[in-house]
Fold:
Amino acid sequence: MNKKISLGAAISFMAIVAAITFTLTMIFSLNIFNSKILNVNDRENLYTKLSEIDSMVRQNYQGTIDEDLLLDAIADGYVNGLDDRYAAYYTAEEMKKETQANNGELVGIGVTVTEDESGYIRVVGVYDDSPASVAGIQADDLIIQVDGEDVKSIGYSRATDNIQGDEGTKVRLLTRRDGVDQAEMELVRKRVEIPSVSYRMIGTNGYVKIDGFSGSTVDQFSNVVDSLIDEGAQALIFDVRNNSGGTLDSVVKMLDKLLPAGVIATSTTADGTTTELARSDASEITLPMVTLTNANTASAAELFVAALRDYEKTEVVGTTTFGKGVMQTTYTLTDGSGIKFTTAKFNPPVSENFDGVGITPDYEVTLTADQEKNFENLDETTDPQLQKAVEVANALQN
Structure:
């Protein structure tokens, strides 16, 4: 039986619904308003305190204020106050270097150096096609003068800073090789690509050492993998030990070369929103793979390992990784300086986020203290972790 309600009852019902809707809307709006007022009050307190400090200092300070230095210090202090271990403030000059590093480039003469026990600068490595390489500088050379100034007199830090400079500018160096001073040379600084991938064949295995993930790493990695396959590699060993990470953009592009179609990584923000960061196409490398890790394998390097394992593409040898599963975003400010801080977690395709936990290897192999100290000189005859990786790779080929 159909029931009818009166016009008055219908109007009353609609009024009640409208009142409830209005009340809920007001409660929601009030919560937003209160949170905004709280935020405004917090910011007002921040500006008031800073203004008070500034006023007191300018009225009473007996020294001279360097306004640029003061602004940098204030910005640096703000970022440090976030309690974010990965946050950083960059001056305009530092921001230039940070951008170059993320692109896998540097502007200079193309050397890696360390402080020699003598107080001079010891050349550790020379990049191909760099000004230093063209000038004939070699590993183990000592740089004893920079622009006519003795390195020991001005100090290692200042001397290395003086070697750097803008693209196209010149620097004069005096070097010493095997105790003999060489003729002074003049080098023109240029943009140099930083090599971050090295490789060789170990038996039937292609060994790939990845030192970091930057813009230039992607092509280096792709070319290396193709070369090893052309040389007849039956398995691939990826070494990301002591790899502290780099840019997510570069690591997902490298993973795309190795993985089948599917998700490579997602991000999760503080409010719980999860977003797909990257997806692989159907093209993949089907060779057996082994990955080497240690406690210094971090961030993007951990994603590299986790993604390969999620797709059952690799066995992992070494020790548990660092455990950094959060991503930072870098913002450039109007004056050319920049800030970097944590904006989300990044997640592997399937497995749980590894932040604070790390990735446990399938085969745990440790190095002795002496082996750790001499790590750069280890090879497949003296490195037990690499030896195990070769053993596993050989088994996977059968």
Notes: Residues 197-397 form a domain with the 2-enoyl-CoA Hydratase; Chain A, domain 1 fold (CATH 3.90.226.10). The chain has three domains: 8-42, 105-193, 197-397. Residues 19-30, 32-38 have pLDDT under 50 and may be disordered.
